[in-house]
Every structure is written in C-alpha cells, then in structure tokens.
Amino acid sequence: MILLLLSTLLLIPVLMGTGKIVENFSGKLIEGISGKILLGILGISLSWTILAFFIPLNHYVEFSTIAIGLVYFFKDKLYKDFTAFSKKDFSLICLVSLIILFSGSFYPYILDHFGYYVPTIKWLKELGLVKGISNLDLTLGQMSVWHIFQAGFSNFSDPFLRINSVVLIIIYTLYIIEKKSWIQLCVIPVLLLFCQSPSPDLPVIVFALIILNEILKQNKQTSLLFAFSVFVFIIKPTMIWLPVLSFLYSVFILKSNLKNLIFGILIGFLFFIKNIYTFGYPVFPVSIIDLGVSWKPNPEVLKISSQFAIRKTYDMQYSYEEIQKFSTIDYIRNWLFLNGIKAKINLLFIVSLIIFVVFTFIKKNRIITFICISLIVKSVLVLLFSAQYRFFMDVFFVIFFILFRDYFNQKKSVAVFSVLSILFISFLTFPNILQTYFPSFNPGSFMGKFKKKQMYKPSVYESTKFDSFRVGNLNFHVSANYPFNYDSKLPAISAGYVSQDEKLGIFPQLIDDKNLKKGFVWKKLNNQEKKQAKSVIYTINPLGK
User: Fold this and answer.
1) Contact predicate 149/48, CB 8 Å
2) Among the listed residues 344, 328, 341, the one whose alpha carbon sits nearest the alpha carbon of residue 383
3) CA atoms within 13 A of residue 190's CA, in its CB half-sphere
4) Which of 35, 266, 307, 318 has a CA 20 to 30 Å removed from the CA of 421?
C-alpha cells in the first residue's frame, strides 16, 4: 500500500507534465488537473504504441518519459493547480485514495491476469510489439494499448502492475471533485474489484463516463472528444458505442466538419495497423478484411476460437454442436435462463436497455437519444458476436449515470460510496463471502486472502516454474503444472495452445531463427516435427488428461 502511494505520487506529476505538452499542441480537453492527466495518458500511450513497433518498452523509455514529464511539471509550476482544492475536497480525495490503495494491494485474481495481461506486458517490456505473435499464443494477438501503457511504467514506476489503482485515484477521483459530478463517486466501489490487475475494463469505464459527462455538459472540444473516444475504443473495442456517440454529437449537435475528426481517425488507423502486425487482421479476434499477410493465424485456430466464444456466451453450459441446433427462441431463452448468476445479469441487461429506451422516448433530448442509439448499436454487435456479460458491463454504468445523475448530490453520493466501499472491501478481505453466496461467480474462487504485508507492498504471486522444449526452429517454454504462461521465460506458450496445435498438425515457427522480434508464422509439421510435438505433449501431460 505504501509502495502504491509512492508510485502514485511519482506518476501524478509525470502525467500532468506530459499532458501539458500535449495541451500545447492540441488545446485543452478538460479544464483542471484531470484534463492534463487524461491528455498525458493519451499522448504517452500513442507514443509508446508507435515506439513498440521498433524497440522494447524498457527502462530507457520509462526514465526518458519520467524525466520529460517532471521537467514540464516543475517548469510550468503545475503543482500550483492543487491549491484549487478546498480542505474539505482534499480530505475527501485522501479518504477515497486510501480506500483505493488498500483495495489495489490485494492479490490479483482475474484469470486473464495470468494468461493475458502479464505475458503481454512481459513481451512488450522485453521486445515490444512482435509480428504474428498470435501464432504463438492467440490471446497475445490483442496487445491492448492499455497494456502498452502499463508495460512502459512497469520497469520502475509501477512494477506491481497496479496502474489501474493509480488511474482510479489520480484521474477519476480528481475529476469527480473538480467537476462536482458526485454521482460518479457511487461507481468507484464497484471498480475496486478491477484495481489489482491492469484490466482494460476499468480504464474504459472510467474514461467513458468522463467523456459522457463532458458531452452532456456540451463540451465543444470536438477534435479531442472524438479522439479520446476512439482511444477508449482501441483500448477495448467493445466500447464502440463511445466513438459512435462522439461522432453523432460532433456532427449533428456541434456541426463539426471532417477536419475535426482527423486526429481520432488517425488513432483508429494506428489501432488497425497494430492489430494487423500482431494478429494479421484489423480487429482482434475476428478474421474480417483479409489482407493476405503471411503471419495471419491458421484458419482452424480462428474457427476454434470463434466456437469457444459462442460457448462462452452460454457460460460453457452447452457444447458447440448443441448451440448450433438451437432455434431462434432457444438462442434467447437459453441465454436468459442459464444456471447461476450470469442469467440474472443477462436478464438485467435486457431490462435495463428497455427501461433506457422508454426513458429516452419520454425525455426527447437529442444527446440522450444519441446515447441510446450508440448503446443499441454496441449491444447488437455484442449479442451477435459473443454475448458475455463482461462485454456489456459498461452499459449498466452508463444507464445508471444517465438515469440518476440529477438525483445524487454530494451527501447522497458520499453515503452510497461509503456503504458500497465497505461491502466490496469485505468481498476482497473475506473472499469466502463471495464463494459462499455467489458460487457461480467463478473469479470469487481465485481471490487470495488478506496479508499484513499488503500495508507495505501489494500482494503478487511468485513466478511459475517452466519446462523448455523445441519443435522445428522454435525453442519455447511451458509453465510446469500450470495452464497459463504467467511470468514464464520468453517465448512461452500455454499448454492448451501446444495441445491444440499438435492436434491440428501445425506449430508456430520463427520467421528469423536468430531474432524473436521478427515474429512468428505457423507451418504444417513434417514427420520429425510431429514426433517432437508429441514428445512435448507427453511431457506436459503424461497421463493424456
């Protein structure tokens, strides 16, 4: 907890300083400290994404960025901005920050932390973006811009990968208090469940609610609003509704021309180029717009991934073959009446959308109408692709914000924040509560218990042991007795993908035998390589389980 505080105290001036640099070129997105920090995150993330094509995001990159940010922070006397807060505001900031720091000090428990977040950050730190890395492990093809941002600060500033805790503190809390948008205090306790890992879900919800509030206040910074909305989209593409909303707001309310959208369009192009480089197609994980690049994944691998996404829609309670036999009514009924808590979430999602549509019809407000249209566009796309609750979770926050923003004043919001914080911290401190009362909430079973050392240093798991193998020209590592790569030596492949590739008769190979950075392609195994692959399978799974 203490180390998280020190990390926060370092990153605040760095992000403000870099944000000031961006402001000098682009103008202000939002007045105040939070506005500078938002632009600092935008500028650093985009700069590092471009750099990652060529170099690793190592300590040289981090120290250079820290130095530049600090120079501008002190040169422009940005520390004076903090004097705008009253003693009462400052006390509230400290209280909320302590709660977030304590929550962020718990063990990470989201499974993607071990199979996606940490391995991705490790690749970015050691090599940067790698061509065709999805051939090695399909999951790594995502390479979210948020993990690029985390990777660059993970060498020194934030080695415990708690950038989400810092974001909650230095952006969201400051923004809420600066803009007196008190209802957003009620959101923070729920987000405490996401601040132990660099999950993209937390920043996109925070950023989306900030941009949403600015649009409702009719912020006229068209170029930056649209650009930042696209930035949120490239962090997590399921946030497609936000750039749609910003576009509608810019064109039909602010009457902006195409020139004001160029910055956002360029950010979108960077996203597509990054995905083509790492995955082979413009949008992960769908194989649309085939450019014929040699490093695109094997079609069978993509087919299996698509089938898995469909099964995840139904919480793995049906086989793919069973789902294929569903009638239209079966698709809807079985999704709404799954076993466990996810069925209740799905039903709440549909009911919330219906309520919001009715609310929109009654209000007859153009901005709210555009918000409703944007959410419906996003919901339809998610329902068609893979209707997992984690893909539409942000919709609940948006609808809650719109419906109740005029009801919650400071007193009510602080009261709700206090009660919910106690509740969610109880879940983190005593995970048995979740496991007992919500047994179908799978992440609850992976929560680690509170440790006293958290008061000084956030809890992290030890690196897993690994075994080393060779198939064709690829030397690789597989975590021993653990299904995910986690922190294994690079290049690492999860046991599941090794098994899948062996069954398909293919395997990832280096484009250049002597340079991992040049990337990976897949190739069909010859007889000798098939024997090598079978030997690997026998070693990691001798009983054939």
Assistant:
1) yes
2) 328
3) 15
4) 35
Q: How do strand 520-524 and strand 506-510 relate by DSSP bridges?
A: antiparallel
- CB-CB contact of 286 with 262 (8 Å): no
φ, ψ of residue 471 to 5 degrees: the values are -135, 120
Residue 446 pLDDT level (bands cut at 50, 70, 90): low
Contact between residue 402 and residue 368 where contact means Cβ atoms under 8 Å apart = yes
Sign of CA dihedral 123, 129, 130, 133: positive
DSSP letters of 463-513? PPPEEEEEETTEEEEEETT-SS-TTPPSSB--HHHHHHHHHHTEEEEESST
Q: Label residue 452 exposed, middle or buried (CB < 10 Å: 0-12, 13-18, 19+).
A: exposed
CB 391 within 8 A of CB 240: no
Phi, psi of 23, deg, nearest 5: -60, -35
What is the rounded CA–CA span in Å between residue 476 and residue 140?
15
Global pTM?
0.94
When pLDDT is averaged across residues 1-22 and rounded to a whole number, the result is 95
Are 187 and 100 in contact, with CB atoms under 8 Å apart?
Answer: no
Other beta carbons less than 10 A from residue 466's beta carbon: 19
How far are the Cα atoms of 476, 506, 522 from residue 471, in angstroms, in the given order? 8, 10, 12
Provide Rg for the chain, Cα atoms: 23
**Which position has the token pair 């605040």?**
12
CA dist list (Å): 125 to 29, 51, 514: 30, 12, 19
Task: Give the model confidence (pLDDT) of 500-513 as tens digits.
Answer: 999 999 999 999 98
> Encoding tokens for residue 187?
């959101």
For residue 43, CA distances in Å to 71, 233, 359 come to 16, 15, 37
- Sequence-separated (6 or more) residues with CB below 8 Å from residue 113: 196, 197, 198, 199
DSSP symbol at 456: T
Structure tokens at 22: 């961006």
State phi, psi for 458 to the nearest 5 degrees.
Answer: -60, 145
